[in-house]
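Sync notes, pocket subgroup
Present: LS, DG
LS reminded everyone that the earlier model was apo-only. Rerun requested with N-acetyl-L-glutamyl 5-phosphate included. Inputs:
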Amino acid sequence: MSTVSGARIRSNRAGVTAKAETLISALPWLERFHGATVVIKYGGHAMTDEALRHSFAEDVVFLRYAGLRPVIVHGGGPQINAALAANGIESTFTAGLRVTTPEAMEVVRMVLTGQVQRDVVGLINRHGPFAVGMSGEDANLFTAERKLALVDGRAVDIGQVGEIVEVQVGAVRALLDDGRVPVVSSIARGDDGEVYNVNADTAAAALAVALDATKLVVLTDVEGLYADWPASDDVVDSLTTDELAALLPELSAGMLPKMEACLHAVRGGVPQAHVLDGRVLHSLLLEIFTDEGIGTMVLPGHPGGPVLEDATWAGNGSTV
Ligand SMILES: Nc1ncnc2c1ncn2[C@@H]1O[C@H](COP(=O)(O)OP(=O)(O)O)[C@@H](O)[C@H]1O
Ligand SMILES: CC(=O)N[C@@H](CCC(=O)OP(=O)(O)O)C(=O)O
């Protein structure tokens, strides 16, 4: 046998060993998260690049085959913006929430449940036949009341924007027990007969609390929470709920509902919430199965301490 072919065999062996080591290094996490429910918020900005969309879908299917119970709550802000613009409907945001007129609500509902949710379901099912779409209206998953935004201490009307007051998780649990991956749109019904537009970060947190999830993961288009945005891009590695609560009044734009969602999820009993960079290939797998330490992690301020009393998160106790 020649030296050249011998060298090739040796280097292949080294490659195979490295692959086996990579697989084995995931063992502690596979043990820890087997059977765990993980709620993943898939942001509208994280779903624009084709390679990243497939990497997301592969990660979700991988999690499912690895024995976790992933639940997706999808966003669609940029897709709604495009549809509103195409229909000549103006749109503005107040405190990170879309001011939603009845005319805009029709477009929001159509885009989220009829377009984005279908896309996400189709994407996942190309890699494994698990995804089933649901609107928050289905089986009364989300019940909401009209939400007012706080601007400089004043309550401001922002239209048909909902604050979730009840979560009935029966249908989601049934899908999970059947081995499915629920893909949920953040639309809610109201007892008043209205349909409400709920921020998808907020909806994901309410669902994570109601499902007693092990983790909430929020995928977005930045590396995590920037400490001094936009002046610097230093990412906050981890912070407690108490530290986050103190920081909230300083946060702006899209990060405000995201970090509020992480705060409420962890205060509502979810052990960890993460904001991850959806622009990194396989960021979900890296977060769950390695100690890469990507993104920003929120942990309880007082482990074992009291849970925040907040009517918005009543979903915690009102499960079916
Ligand atoms: N402190 C901050 N750290 C990181 N991003 C911030 C911060 N404050 C505001 N942002 C903005 O929030 C955006 C993420 O929110 P959003 O656009 O709603 O994303 P998504 O569609 O993923 O929900 C970032 O792209 C960034 O422009
Ligand atoms: C009330 C409110 O703001 N609702 C959001 C719902 C979609 C969403 O949250 O999408 P992203 O996660 O991609 O931002 C909206 O209308 O844009």
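DG: Confidence is low (pLDDT under 50) at residues 303-320.
LS: The first strand starts at residue 37 and ends at 42.
Action: DG to write up.
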